[in-house]
Amino acid sequence: MVVTFSFWTQNYLDLDTTFTLANYREAWTDPLYRELTLRSLRISLVVTVVTVLLAFPIAYHVSFHVHHRKALWLFLITVPFWTSYLLRVFLWKVILGYNGVLNSALLGLGLIDEPLSFILYNANAVVITLAHAWAPFAILPIFVALERIDRSLLEAAKDLGDGPVRSFFRITLPLAMPGVVAATIIVLIPTVGDYITPRLVGGTEGLMISNMIQVQFGKANNAPLGAALAVSSMFIVGGISLLIFFATRKIGRGGAD
Fold first, then answer.
1. What percentage of the chain has pLDDT greater than the value 90?
2. How far is the C-alpha of 191 from the C-alpha of 187, rounded, in Å?
3. In a domain, 256, yes or no
4. Virtual CA dihedral for 72, 76, 77, 81, nearest 10 degrees?
5. What domain range includes position 138?
6. Per-residue model confidence as pLDDT tens digits over 205-245
7. Mean pLDDT of the chain
8. How far lies 84's CA from each of 19, 90, 177, in Å?
9. For residue 128, what are the contacts with CB-CB under 8 A and spacing of at least 6?
């Protein structure tokens, strides 16, 4: 239905079902929509990189260095899901606020003379909040991939003279790539379409294309244009996901050869 709507036009309550590409032309040529789309992609890519880089050491520690009570560690990783996503966003708003927890702590320690203003109501706040919210989704697939690695391969590499760093890059990381790719796609796709976080902590500098889609379906009462923006975003994210998948698959095959 969304795809169908994107080829129609709407004038307030009147819906014209005549086929047209006007919505897609506007979605791809209007500077405002281009800027919001590019900003959404930038924020989503940064969130994905930060989340995966932070998730990998945690998953690696649980897989290789925790020998007892792994289930407890995994249970603790999922604890944030006990609270509402909206509540977690509001908590980050309290932490990053001008008079919030972080600024109060830094002022109390004498590290800053006045509260920091660049950590809330901008893209930085959106990145921090989304990275925290999606961290468990990145940790779990990486952990599963690490658990499947045959430990005898690492022992053989050690016997042949490989150090920990060399064996990590030659064995552990390549074999963990399916989990890394899964974590990347799992985080990338939903963060592009997130509209609650940029609405609450992003301010005007952190708004994303999803917020504009919401406006088009709501206040602007222009569902066809909102649908065209949504479909365009879906194809862009799908294309990036396929590029990541095939690129890592090619790298994996090259490493195997």
1. 68
2. 6
3. no
4. 130
5. 2-251
6. 889 999 999 999 998 999 999 999 999 999 999 999 889 88
7. 91
8. 41, 10, 31
9. 92, 96, 119
